[in-house]
Structures are given as C-alpha cells and as structure tokens.
Amino acid sequence: MSESAGQPSESNEYLYPADTWPGLFERISDLLSARKEPGFVFPRHERAPTRCRWEIGNVPDHAWMLDKSTNGFSAGYLRAEDPFRLEIETAIRALCAGQRPAISAEVRYFINVRVTVVEELLFWLTIGRRRTDPNETETIVPFPNRSVAATVEWLMIDWFNEHGADIAALLRLKQRHTGLEKSGDAVGE
Predict the structure, then answer these.
(1) Is residue 81 part of a domain?
(2) Tens of pLDDT along 54-102?
(3) How far is CA 34 from CA 26, 42, 101, 110, 113, in A?
C-alpha cells in the first residue's frame, strides 16, 4: 500500500490505470488484503470455518429473486453471513481506509467471498475486444467519480448487500456444477 490511505501502490505490477474497471479488478485484492490466487474460483466450501458453512437454497425459477425466505436461493448464505455482517463491514471500511485490523477467520472467509463476487461483476462490466490480446478490454460503463477505495467500499458493502448473496449462490452453484467444489482446483482460505 502507498502512503495514501486506502490506495494500492502504483507500480509496474498493474496493467491498467486505477480509475478503470480492469484497474479496479487488479487492485481489489491488494486493497482488501484478500487471497492472491488468480481466477474467479469461489472460495472452497470445505475450507470455510465451521460457523461460515452454508448451502444453496432452492434452485432458481421465475420467482427466485423474490424469495428471501428460509428456502430462497441465497438464504443459506445470508443466514451464515448475518452474525458477522457488522464485523465484515467494519473490516472492509478499515481496509479501504488503509488500516490493517485484526480479522477473524470467519470475517476473512466472507471478505474473500465478497471479493470473488465483486471481481465477477467487474469481469462482466468489460469485454475483450481483440481475442489475440487478452489485456485489451472495452466497456461502456464509466468509472465513478470517486476514489478507488471509495468505489471498492461501495461495491463490497452497499452493492453486495443488495445483490451479492444471489451472485455468491450462483457462483457456488457454478463451482459445484463444473466439479471444482470437490476437485481441489478451487482456491480459498
């Protein structure tokens, strides 16, 4: 981290400017001291602390977005995260402010889930224009007029609290469907 609170150091390790979606994607793990393994693989369920284990609810149908009941698609995630939510949000705010608070294994797991979900969103915001150069991307979504740290904080707390649990359940379902949940190829804490 640089001397500037909540800002990853700008060095040659980054391919994109900080104020772009690909640039934010590159910096989010550094900013939140999250996992360093590459890719979009969801944190492995069997490596989650016992109190963080959760199951996918009913498989989505036409009304799945409306079902936040005990059987809803993301209800298991919401139940598992709920006892830690205040601690998760406090840790994210501190990390985005450049602080390094002590973080429990449970909070670290849920921060890694949130990072994975937000990385997936950032990936969806861009397209690769030239398949011969994977570093060339394009988007029509403008980067917000706020700092990288403020953008990460908004995505990791405000946006995630509204949409993230559903995407977490989708990513876990994808991991299960592709066999990565049991293969040992998935990453996590």
Answers:
(1) yes
(2) 887 766 555 555 555 556 778 889 999 999 999 999 999 999 998 989 9
(3) 12, 13, 13, 10, 10
- Alpha-carbon distance 182 to 51, whole Å? 20
Asked if residue 114 is part of any domain, the answer here is yes
HEC profile for 19-41? CCHHHHHHHHHHHCCCCCCCCCC
- The predicted model scores a pTM of 0.78
Q: Rounded CA gap, 118 and 7, in Å?
A: 18
Residue 108 forms part of a structural domain: yes
Class of residue 183 by CB neighbours under 10 A (exposed 0-12, middle 13-18, buried 19+): exposed
Work out how many domains the chain is built from and give that number. Answer: 1
Is 12 part of any domain? no
Q: Which of 41, 11, 45 is nearest to 26 (CA)?
A: 11
What confidence tens digit (pLDDT) does each residue in 12-30 have?
A: 577 778 888 888 887 887 7
Phi, psi of 13 (to 5 degrees): -75, -15
